[in-house]
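[Structure tokenization] protein backbone as discrete codes
[Encoding] learned vocabulary of local backbone shapes
[Protein] chain in single-letter code, fold in tokens
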Amino acid sequence: MWLIVALAGFTIGAVVNILDKYVLAKTISKPVVFVFYSTIFALIFFLLTPLAGGLVGLFDYAVAVLAGVCFVAGLWALYIGTQTSEVSHIGPLSGAVIPIFTLILSKIIFTENFSSNQIIAITLLVLGSLSISMEKSAKNNGFHRGLAWGILSGFLWAIFAVASKYLYNTYDFFTGFVWSQGMVGAAAALLLLSPAVRHTFARSDKTSADKNGKKIALVVFDKFLGLVSLILVQYAVALGSVTLVYALAGVQYALLVIFVFLLSKFIPKFFKEDYARLELAQEFFAVLLIAVGLALLV
């Protein structure tokens, strides 16, 4: 069950990755502004806390706060990295880092144990994601600043993943999800301290307002899909192993590579990334590794 739910979430996540890059390139240029509008609506989850009930003890509230802050900070780091690199490279790198750190943290906190097949599958999925992240283009070659942001993003999201799993283990999924996402909204509210975010509330003429309305509509649609993806992935985490679920992020990035290639070939006006022959061979090999890793998990 957790495997099907996770795959559905990561498939939608691949579409969200592409829309994120499009929004950052065409509509909202500052990552902090995009992060704010991507996460501030999570404050709505606080309205559900009467149904979810409260948490027990200051420690559990601190874990929920940690989850919220790390989610927002991880998203910010990812968007900064995406601006300086290709989405089909930064996303997979972040996705490869997450299961590495979740594996370490889960062994310490949850004492998770894995079969030999699962260890091999995790390794292949991570290696596949890392292979996709290797970039050789006119813009970047080898390790660069954008990749550092991708690694930071993966580390922060690993903390978010493990903190969320702790809440799901301690409470039911609904309670853990409501409180962790409510704290995401609270962390997003702190971004109002940024002048760039506050500037978006300034009055504008009708033409600008119409343009802003279209931008907001696109962001809302993008973030709606993102929320659906998040709920599915988090539910899979509640049902199964946090490490195995996030190892499957490699599937998301394999699909991302395929989607980006098809868009670049058939709808370049909407979305385009350039591929060298060697890069295409590298990414084909990465997708093959991910497919074998997925087969071992199934």
